[in-house]
Design goal:
Blueprint: H1 3-7, H2 9-28, H3 34-41, H4 48-69, H5 88-104, H6 108-116, H7 122-143
Helix pairs in contact: 2-6, 6-7
Length: 148
């Protein structure tokens, strides 16, 4: 979402409504429970496969089809480009994310939603997520070319 969308009251309401809907969906699908996610990842319960398939389908529509059918977003701003390059760093990041998800059964969205649902144990996972983000920021800052 662009800054212009979030600066308007309608943009703020839309952002809040989207976040609440996302959090509710995570809670309803039990993705906020690490046990459910770990059962899915060990093939003991494949119920989250439907959630994963739905998320992929919705994102495919949202990022590929909707911008081609409509010239503007619902709030009237232009769609933003979402460039992605499949390179070594993207693959490594995906592997690290997957390993972390597999070890603790939680990724950032469900961790925040679960914390909001009262699961204080997720503070440990969130601390790890933030530490990883900090380390990545420090590493990426060192790798960035210096411009004068």
């Amino acid at each position: 979402m662009s800054m212009a969308q979030t600066e308007s009251p309608l943009g703020t309401v839309a952002t809040l409504a989207s976040g609440l809907l996302f959090g509710f969906g995570l809670a309803w699908s039990t993705m906020i429970r690490p046990e459910s996610v770990l059962d899915f990842l060990t093939f003991d319960d494949l119920g989250l496969l439907f959630v994963l398939g739905s998320a992929v389908g919705i994102n495919l529509l949202a990022y590929q089809l909707v911008p081609r059918l409509f010239g503007r977003t619902l709030l009237g701003t232009a769609f933003q480009e979402r460039p992605f390059e499949l390179d070594r760093q993207a693959l490594l990041g995906g592997v690290l994310f997957g390993v972390g998800w597999g070890l603790c059964g939680v990724c950032p969205g469900p961790a925040l939603a679960g914390l909001g649902a009262g699961n204080a144990d997720l503070l440990i996972a969130l601390a790890g997520i933030f530490a990883g983000a900090l380390l990545h920021g420090l590493w990426a800052g060192r790798q960035a070319p210096v411009t004068a």
